[in-house]
Amino acid sequence: MDKKENKRFYLIREDVLPESVVKTLQIKEVLKNNPSLSIFEAVKQFDLSRSAFYKYRDTIFPIDEKLEETREFTLILYVNDIIGMLAEVLNTLSKLNLSVLTIHQSIPMDGRATITLSLDGKDTDLEIDEVMESLKMIEHISNVELISMTI
């Protein structure tokens, strides 16, 4: 790949990552929490080679670590078309200390609609999955998906 080209990013669940990548994430966390620990000691503790650690350390990071820097993300909610649905969603977001940056509600079809929300979470301590679970608890929301985030 040409170095001038943009790098592509993916969201991927931890359970499908290779063991060396998961260990790299664990080592980064240990080093972050214990600055006196050397990289040599940390990789030895997790039975990973230093070369594997150095290969992945600058290319893999938890979503929430990057969100600490920006805290902006976009969700899509699949909802039943009932009066007051959007108001209930906005009320819940307010209680979670989230700011709405943009909002779009689709035209309902067959009693269903989508609500797309770009949110700023700098004033909340919640992680994305906790926000999504809180929204899923609202009656008449069938699903919530993360569709983008600012990194």
Automatic annotation (TrEMBL):
InterPro entries: ACT-like_dom_sf (IPR045865), ACT_dom (IPR002912), UPF0735_ACT_dom-cont (IPR008310). It comes from Staphylococcus nepalensis. It comes from the Bacteria. Gene3D superfamilies: 3.30.70.260. This is UPF0735 ACT domain-containing protein BUZ61_07295. NCBIfam families: PRK04435.1. SUPFAM superfamilies: ACT-like (SSF55021). Pfam families: ACT. Belongs to the UPF0735 family. Residues 74-149 form the ACT domain.
